[in-house]
Amino acid sequence: MDYIVGQRWVSHADSQLGLGVIVEIEPRRVTVSFPAVGEERTYALDNAPLTRLRFKEGDHISTINSVELVVTDVQEKGGLLLYSGIDHHDQAITVSELELDAFVQITTPQQRLLNGHFDKNDDFALRVATLAHLDRLQHSPARGLMGSRTSLLPHQVYIANEVGQRHAPRVLLADEVGLGKTIEAGMIVHQQLLTGRAARVLILVPQTLLHQWLVEMLRRFNLHFSLFDEERLQAMSEHDPLDDGEMALELSADSPFDSEQLVLCSLDLFRDNPDRQLQALMADWDLVVVDEAHHLHWSPDAPGEDYRFVAALGRQSAGLLLLTATPEQVGLDSHFARLQLLDPERFHSLEQFQQEERQYRRWSEMAEQIEAGTVPDDLPPGLDPTAPATTLIDQILDRHGTGRVMFRNTRAAISGFPERILHRYPLPSPDAYLHARIDLESALHPESPYHDDSWLAFDPRVEWLEQTLKRLRPEKVLVICARAMTAVALEHYLHLRAGIRSAAFYEGLSIIERDRAAAYFADEVNGAQTLVCSEIGSEGRNFQFAHHLILFDLPLNPDLLEQRIGRLDRIGQTGDVHIHVPFLENSAQETLLDWYDHGLDLFHESCSAGTMIFEAFQDRLLPQLEQRDDNFATLLAETTEFTLATRRELREGRDRLLERNSCKPEVAAQVIAEIQENEDSETLQGYLETLCDAYGVEHEHHSEQALILRPTEHMLTAHFPHLPEEGVTVTFSRDKALAREDIAFMTWEHPMMVDAMDMLHSTELGNAAIATIKLKGIAPGTMLLESIFTVNCVAPRGLQLERFLPLTPVRLLVDARGKDLADLVPHTRLNGLVEKVNKSTALAIIRQVHLDVENKMSLAGKLAEARLAPILTTAETRMRNDLGAELERLESLREVNPSIRQEEIDHLGYRIEECATHIRHASLQLQALRLILTT
Question: Where is this motif: DEAH box (predicted)?
Fold first, then answer.
């Protein structure tokens, strides 16, 4: 190659130098100036790492005067290139290559290949594999549901799949305790965020559940919510808090809630604080989630301030999720108030709602009759009595009044719960407690008056606890008591005096410290035998790997007791749950235990109406706890009778139609099967290891289906996505992830995988390669060009267009005659045959076949374009069939079921037309090129 002063060349040894210009030529050397970095470099003529930069027709170029133009023609005069093109004013301009901007980025496959910038064949294969994985994930029906660290329980997966795919979902989640409403909400939020249906989410919870939600969203769904409290808001404010007289508009001009996308805060933050309420209302939320929504104060005549605030948020936000107790726990009036938050137009009259509720029960009876083989005479209008039973039941489900806005699963309808076995341990009351009793608090928790741990020496429950743990060894045992000071004292005693491996879990610990304690307890090999928790241990955390629960004391609240038991008594528990209750004889503890055991039967069977029963007998129970007398037997008998009647009424009044609509096992099974198919750990682990090798991330074996990842000094990027400096341990096993919460659960939807694949896709790594291959019967020097195209469709994420039109990689393998051999020689087979080419040889090859390569590129482009039209036609047909069928269904349903919102129908129609428009404007994008020469 002859060098001429003024020509533009690039260094394939260091692409960061930018575009160079030849400034001096000597007999054996050439000097190149690189204006972008202010350097000059001199190279030997015979082995200079330089490649002539030649733009071609259609390329975009920029001049030193910041003029951008599209090349229309290239001429060479006196060894220098002249580029003619059209600028953004549609003016024709001709510029010399001397005028080109030095800050050129050579990133397209064509530019890099023709200018001698090659990657390893392994990187090329990695890029192709990444495109294939992205394509598969984009149109997966389980998209958005694969990344959660949860058990794949059918009722949870069904609800998340049903609600998460809706536009601006507005639903009530009212599953019974132990069925995982928080997990369902997290799965819905995760899917809405991952698929682009939502970007800004506000979660409102009671103060006591703030950290539980913060940890659950992070641990289970990798969602980093920002915790907002008054202290943080004060720190963010540039001015002092506004006086009452200041204008609200001034306050809302710059809402601090706009500073984060995902916000978590307590409802208490807004109580009696109209300024904070206004700030939250002025922020733009896509989805609002309210936990414990049944605590919102409401009456037909005077809704509470908290209820009015949530109602205002519900009107401002497109989506609204309410998590609440079951209707039988809160009453029909309160239940109506929650539904009114979701759709004030639909649920506007309590009296009308009460009438509809009676009709819902009749529809439920109809479904049972049809299932039994009898078609009722009073079918709703529009139903064909000759239709198959499954069709009739589905149509009744669709017409069910709250079936689309409410989901309620019950333990009676969901199988998989363990047996509860109660063990009672009467212990003598020490004299110190008999003399120290002051009030009901000290009667139920006799150690509470002590400000030190002196009570450990004489409380018989302590010695009993030590002996019981030693007897149960090596079984894992969860211990729960009401007070943090009690938990700390007991853990110190067990650890320091009894020699029992233990950990404490209480509200005084940071979130990280709580995680460590829980992880130490979960460790099967070197972990703690027991975890001693304060009452906070009955909230949020699940320890179903343990089978023994010790209740060191009892709470004066049936729902709280149920929550304690629910830490072990959950779906996924593999054995019976043994509940051990030590108690002091002839004390308030024994009386309360008898009332819970014989009156409510809470230790053997869950009761969703526990609080209602407690409130009915509270006035008679509390005096018995103070001083038990002969009236207790009567109280116990009446409680037992009332509880049996309540349970019977709940069973008979169960809305089985709503339960059917809250979990369709066949639908859930299909989604779970899709998740498990995508969860193939060998494929995912192999891909991640290859990705780490390409980017210079160190990985080593930790255990079966687990790796340790660490950053190195030789990484291609300064920071690998979501890889901390100290490294991270990851597992590809869902079972191991559920047992070891200190290990990250790596899925295709983990932020590390999502961002790393996007990083590779958006950069040039692996988009140009060169190789040789030995093929019998093909003359040496024959050239093959392997090209990978994908469909490029620019559209708003909220349209979910990739579901119908994913990347759809198009692979071509053009031979010397212009024939496509892609079907004859698959990509994976080709990877096993090709051999690498050293740099100097590769550069020499490119110089010799430069023109031939351009011709093959042009041919490959035309072949790929011919395939685009049927791809787009198929995508639009699929989109119109799927969305059109759903639109037709919703339009017909709205005539008989007013819970179908017109907004949802309008959005679906808009989405269909927008999707069609964007599909028609889609084009092909060249993703990678590999030049292969036979030897």
Answer: 291-294
| 177 in a known ligand binding site | yes
597 confidence band (pLDDT: 50, 70, 90): very high
Which residue is listed with tokens 């058990």?
Answer: 151
Strands 698-703 and 577-584: unpaired
Residues 795 and 924 in one domain: yes
176 is annotated as contributing to ligand binding: yes
pTM: 0.77
> Are residue 448 and residue 563 in the same domain, yes or no?
yes
Phi and psi dihedrals of 302, rounded to 5? Answer: -145, 80
- Residue 179 annotated as binding? yes
Domain count, the chain: 6
**Residue 80: partners with Cβ closer than 8 Å, 6 or more residues away:** 4, 6, 7, 96, 97, 98
**540 annotated ligand-binding residue:** no
Nearest alpha-carbon partner for 674 in 183, 223, 161, 221: 161
The tokens describing 323, both together, are 């998590």
Question: How much is the average pLDDT of 678-689?
Answer: 89
Residue whose C-alpha is closest to residue 293's, from 185, 189, 217, 400: 185
For 473-500, write each residue's pLDDT tens digit. 999 999 999 999 999 999 999 999 999 9
Q: Are residues 336 and 359 in the same domain?
A: no
Q: Are 301 and 163 part of one and the same domain?
A: yes
Q: How far is CA 218 from the centre of its chain?
A: 9
Residues 84 and 192 in one domain: no
Q: Give the span between the Cα atoms of 620 and 872, in whole angstroms.
A: 73
Domain limits at 729? 680-746
- Give the span between the Cα atoms of 739 and 568, in whole angstroms: 13
Phi, psi for 93 (deg, rounded to 5): -135, 145
470 is in an annotated binding site: no
Buried-exposed string 453-491: b where 16+ CB fall within 10 A, e elsewhere: bebbeebbbbbbbbebbeebeeebbbbbbbbbbbbbbbb
Considering the domain boundaries, does residue 660 fall inside one? no
Is 444 annotated in a binding site? The answer is no
| Whole-angstrom distance, CA of residue 402 vs CA of residue 418 | 31
Q: In what order do the strands lie in the sheet with 226-228?
A: 226-228, 262-266, 201-205, 287-290, 319-323, 170-173, 406-407
Q: Tell me the DSSP string of 235-284.
A: HH-SSPPPPTTS-HHHHHTT-GGGG-SEEEEEGGGGTT-HHHHHHHHHS-
Q: pLDDT by residue (tens digit) across 835-855?
A: 999 888 888 888 888 888 888
User: What is the C-alpha to C-alpha distance for residues 781 and 773, in angstroms, rounded to an integer?
Assistant: 10
Contact 571, 179 (CB under 8 A): yes
Query: Which among 479, 490, 603, 482 has a CA at the least distance from the CA of 531?
Result: 479
pLDDT in tens, 375-421: 888 887 777 888 888 888 777 766 655 667 888 888 777 776 788 99
Find residue 768's DSSP bridge partners: 929
Residue 460 DSSP SS3: helix
